[in-house]
Design a protein that fits this description.
Layout lengths: L1 E3 L6 E3 L1 E2 L1 E6 L2 E6 L2 E4 L4 E8 L6 E9 L2 E8 L13 H13 L4 H18 L8 H8 L5 H14 L6 H4 L11 H36 L7
Antiparallel strand pairs: 1-2, 3-7, 4-5, 6-7, 7-8, 8-9
Helix pairs in contact: 1-2, 2-3, 2-6, 3-4, 4-6
């Protein structure tokens, strides 16, 4: 099984974790999922190991008729660290969007879109009230790789089919598979561009100016 490890956030091919299960007549060990089947439903629990960080990942899937629901059991949420340079009110929406992702991708996407809109207006100085147009405003100022990722939000979110998404970013509406996680990944890139890198540049400039001052040379402006 391939996917993003919720512990280290690397894209990996998961390995089946070794499981030891007690029996009435001794203990048994095996590699693979645990599955329960009845006339009404099928419940499957996968015990996986990340080859990168070696942490265990547990996923469950319940199939009832033609409907299947998958959920991350452990860890409860993916580990997503927010740089300290990110403003607290933006961090709050981001963390909440990450926390609810395994439970409700729709709620997560609503929170991450609101977070995105705040970043684009405050840090990106976008003036439009429409999220899609805000993206248009900031694209020319972004590095190519980041601009492509931000623009992809519209493609993944299918704004043309769900225009409400571009006008009311906080609405709880249907989401495409992977959309909520994609929003968080894009926000990671924007955090680095708008908050982390400028602060690091500021710190490097301050350190250099200190050396120039000590040497009696003109300071950088």
């Amino acid at each position: 099984m391939r996917g993003k490890c919720p512990h280290c956030l690397h894209d990996v091919y998961f390995e089946n974790a070794a499981i030891t299960r007690p029996y009435l007549h001794g203990a048994g060990s095996f590699n693979g999922p645990i599955q329960y089947e009845s006339e009404l439903e099928t419940v499957k629990i996968d015990f996986l190991s990340c080859p990168n960080c070696r942490h265990v990942v547990i996923r469950s899937s319940v199939t009832i008729g033609d409907k299947k629901e998958e959920r991350l059991v452990w860890p409860p949420t993916a580990l997503r660290l927010v740089p300290p340079e990110v403003p607290e009110h933006i961090k709050k929406d981001y963390v909440e969007a990450a926390d609810v992702l395994p439970i409700s991708p729709k709620a997560s996407a609503a929170l991450s879109r609101r977070c995105l809109q705040t970043v684009l207006t405050e840090a990106g100085t976008a003036t439009s009230k429409d999220l899609s147009k805000q993206i248009d405003e900031v694209l020319p100022s972004l590095p190519t790789h980041l601009a492509e990722s931000v623009d992809a939000i519209r493609a993944v979110g299918n704004f043309a089919a769900h225009s409400i998404k571009s006008k009311s970013s906080g609405e709880i509406v249907e989401v495409e598979p992977g959309e909520a996680e994609c929003n968080l990944d894009v926000l990671d890139g924007l955090f680095d561009f708008y908050y982390v890198q400028p602060e690091r540049t500021k710190q490097r400039k301050a350190a250099l100016n200190l050396k120039l001052k000590e040497a009696g040379k003109p300071l950088l402006k």
